[in-house]
Specification:
Number of strands of chain A: 5
Largest interface: A-B, 27 and 22 residues
Helix content of chain B: 40-55%
Structural class of chain A: alpha+beta
Structural class of chain B: alpha/beta
Shape of chain B: globular
Distance between the termini of chain A: 14 Å
Oligomer: heterodimer
CATH class of chain A: Alpha Beta
CATH architecture of chain A: 2-Layer Sandwich
Strand content of chain B: 15-25%
Largest sheet of chain A: 5 strands, antiparallel
Strand order of the largest sheet of chain A: 1-2-3-5-4
Radius of gyration of chain B: 13 Å
CATH superfamily of chain B: STAS domain
Number of helices of chain B: 4
CATH class of chain B: Alpha Beta
Radius of gyration of chain A: 14 Å
Number of domains of chain A: 1
Order of helices and strands of chain B: EEHEHEHEH
């Protein structure tokens, strides 16, 4: 698999959440993802970007374009140095929330991606990796 | 901060969201609509989301909150113009906007409010 391009932007404020989803939208449109694929993945990115700001205290988004045989993909890596998630399994459960929300952000975002990975250590921060693939 | 205009048409408040809202703008809209519902004694709220290419859980929750507040204040809320890709994504996200009336166009949305008010009066 080839990783073609990397771009890193700050995700510190709710305005940055809007900027992040616009960047993801532009990248996906340029890669000719279908409109439904774009909407799903941008929505997933929005959920995770908001978590980075609200729960992680701000962090960064790294964007990578992937090529793997006949398919191409977009990988988003959200990282923060916040308090981390004590129970990753619980955080991925529909309806579970510590922030007064609906508890659908993380599990919902996971459903909207081709690949989803969440790594977190309490006190160390959180890294969420999202990938969406499309055939070239 | 950007403010979303709220217009009064007949006995309804009409909002057309034309920008990619960040969270504070969505919350400000919720507060503004609540105040205008009371000050104008409107009986309906119509929210046009035809320009939105994304509705995530926060925006979805804000729309649900607006509908809930409007109901307590004796008004009916209708969401109109949802794009197909947004509808597909919302359902997959797990957000079905349960209990919210929807219509495909503004015209049908206003008619839906009229029907709901006629039925309740």
């Amino acid at each position: 698999m080839q990783v073609e391009r990397t771009r890193t932007v700050a995700v510190q404020t709710t305005e940055d959440v809007v900027k992040a989803r616009q960047l993801v939208r532009q990248a996906m449109a340029a890669m000719k993802f279908s409109l439904v694929d774009q909407t799903k993945f941008v929505t997933a990115a929005s959920e995770i970007a908001r978590n980075t700001v609200i729960y992680g205290g701000g962090g960064s988004l790294r964007m990578e374009t992937l090529t793997d045989g006949a398919r191409k993909g977009l990988r988003l890596v959200f990282e923060d140095k916040g308090p981390g998630i004590a129970d990753v399994g619980l955080a991925l459960t529909d309806g579970y929330t510590t922030g007064g929300g609906l508890g659908m952000g993380l599990p919902g975002a996971k459903r909207l991606c081709s690949e989803f990975d969440l790594e977190s250590e309490p006190g160390e921060g959180t890294r969420v990796t999202l990938v969406r693939w499309t055939l070239t | 901060m950007t403010q979303i205009p709220v217009l009064k048409i007949g006995c309804s408040l009409v909002v057309s969201i034309q920008i990619d809202m960040h969270d504070q703008v969505a919350l400000a809209l919720q507060d503004d609509l609540t105040e205008k519902l009371v000050s104008t004694r409107a009986r309906g709220v119509l929210i046009d989301i035809s320009a939105l290419d994304l509705v995530d859980s926060f925006i979805g929750r804000t729309i649900s909150n607006i509908a809930g507040i409007a109901k307590v204040l004796d008004a009916v809320t209708v969401v109109v113009g949802m794009r197909p890709a947004v509808a597909i994504t919302l359902v997959e996200l797990g957000m079905t906007l349960a209990g919210i009336k929807t219509a495909l166009t503004l015209e049908r949305g206003l008619a839906l409010i009229d029907d709901a008010l006629a039925a309740s009066d």
